[in-house]
TrEMBL record:
Protein name (database record): LON peptidase substrate-binding domain-containing protein
Naturally occurring in which organism (per UniProt): Streptomyces andamanensis
Transmembrane feature ranges: none
Domain of life of the native organism: Bacteria
Listed PROSITE patterns: LON_N
Pfam families to which the protein is assigned, alphabetical: LON_substr_bdg
InterPro entries: Lon_prtase_N (IPR003111), Lon_prtase_N_sf (IPR046336), PUA-like_sf (IPR015947)
Residues of the Lon N-terminal domain: 6-224
SUPFAM superfamilies: PUA domain-like
Amino acid sequence: MTTVRLPLFPLNSVLFPGLVLPLNVFEERYRAMLRTLLKTPEDEPRRFAVVAIRDGHEVAPSAPGLPDPTAVPERGPTAGFGPDPAKAFHGVGCVADAATIRERADGSFEVLATGTTRVRLLSVDASGPFLTAELEELPEEPGDEAGALAEGVLRSFRQYQKRLAGARERSLATGAELPDEPSVVSYLVAAAMVLDTPTRQRLLQAPDTSSRLRDELRLLRSETSIIRSLPSLPAPELTRGPTSFN
């Protein structure tokens, strides 16, 4: 078992390997994290782990009424996540490699990172200025018939795109190149579909590529059928909590 200790960045979203993650970082705990990452030699990756929040707030209450009217100010690395932060997060996340970290004049940061490897959350350490975690790297196993499943998912995804474009009354580029490597297909489709966070999380932590592709095939067929029947699209994130400031 390969384990690693990395800074932890909880979000109200799921990061998949290969996907780009832009961040606007303004909370002090994450500023401290990025100041530490900037000390990493330029020829080494500046890595941190992203986990989806199961129960808690992406942005800690910083003043009365922010980010919601009932907020009470909280401070420290665990603010917004309760007394045991490990229970506030989903158990599988993704390592992010920060290719770009730019500090603004006001001390906030602009970050552009890319998901690299899935990891399992083993423990969370809140003793420092920001959360760190002990993580187990998860290999991506292909499973059975991954190639054939990926072809089916791509066909269904193209139909889904067409239906989605029609529902939004706009057109999508039909000549866009899509990957054919099964694991890449599985992560791209998981990120591109209109899904809620628990469903995205389920796809992230699938035991192998084939299992993820089978789940996506069911979802694509179901969602395409729903879009065909409904005059408007659902907005699954609108009722899940206050608007994120990140």
